[in-house]
Design a protein that fits this description.
disordered C terminus; single chain; about 30% strand; five-stranded antiparallel β-sheet; alpha/beta; Elongation Factor Tu (Ef-tu), domain 3; globular; 8 helices; seven-stranded mixed β-sheet
């Protein structure tokens, strides 16, 4: 059992959990995720790791309430326990000194990109962070991202905070202003990541995305998280979750995610979490 040490509402329908999980915290790295099971009969849901403290043995998860299992999780409070926390899973993000890196996040992808931005900052890269959200009440981690970014710019769909428009508009402005980008990392809804990939491909900018696919076991055995990367079929849980954005077949990825819309479930909203990325939806 894994005890919830604290729970904080940080944005509309978004909660941050600090969980006692020393075995996971000891090995966690940016870009990885865990698979949770709330109780004995619960579903297995993959959720990206937002932060960790190996010394204290704690794990931080940011979860949006969008479906059955996350609704159940939203009822939990500090002191309650989660049955299983399996991880860390997935390959860590490849982070090395490259120069200037643009971290582009949409929705709850903000929580996923934060540890990557922090690590890029730590290794000496210049970090430009671009965050998109539906409105002001859906924004979070602004102070944390500002601390690890040379520049932080925000866009909201309704213009309630920052630039009115999409985060991809911000990226286009950065490029058009003459800023040379050595790498772009995009984490968020599939259409957002696809738009970023299409934009950066025109400028031949190396781009990485963290894919939010349907997932069940998280260990490469079920095959549910398969994606087409170039001419190959890959499994997000063991080959990813991060891939070269210019090789991802986004149309196939969108088509698979929409199967759950037609079945009355909620389509993925960001990185690794949706209603329940196994039966309820889909990892990121």
């Amino acid at each position: 059992m894994y005890r919830i040490l604290s729970k904080t509402n940080i944005a509309s329908n978004i909660d941050r959990y600090i969980i006692e999980a020393p075995d996971v915290a000891a090995k966690a790295q940016p870009g990885q995720f865990v698979v949770l099971r709330l109780h004995e009969l619960g579903e297995r849901i993959p959720i990206s790791i937002s932060d960790w403290n190996a010394k204290d043995g704690t794990l931080t998860l940011v979860v949006q309430t969008v479906g059955r299992t996350t609704e159940q999780m939203a009822q939990l409070q500090a002191g309650d326990c989660i049955q299983d926390v399996l991880g860390p899973l997935g390959n860590p993000a490849l982070i090395e000194p490259v120069g200037t890196v643009a971290c582009v996040a949409g929705g709850v992808g903000t929580a996923i990109i934060y540890p990557e931005a922090r690590e890029h900052h730590r290794v000496g890269n210049r970090v430009i962070t671009l965050v998109g959200a539906r409105s002001r009440e859906h924004l979070f981690y602004q102070e944390e991202l500002a601390e690890v970014s040379q520049r932080l710019v925000v866009a909201t769909d309704d213009g309630s905070h920052g630039y009115k428009g999409f985060v991809t508009d911000l990226l286009r402005q950065v490029i058009d202003d003459g800023t040379y980008l050595d790498q772009v990392i995009a984490i968020g809804p599939i259409p957002m990541m696809q738009a970023v990939a299409e934009l950066t491909k025109r400028y031949d900018i190396k781009t990485v995305v963290s894919l939010n696919t349907i997932m069940m076991d998280g260990t490469g055995m079920c095959g549910a998280c398969r994606v087409r990367i170039g001419d190959e079929i890959k499994f997000c849980c063991v080959d990813g979750p991060e891939f070269d954005a210019h090789l991802v077949d986004f149309e196939a990825l969108l088509q698979r995610s929409r199967l759950h819309e037609r079945s009355g479930q909620v389509a993925p909203s960001d990185g690794k979490e949706c209603s329940c990325q196994c039966q309820e939806q889909s990892i990121l």
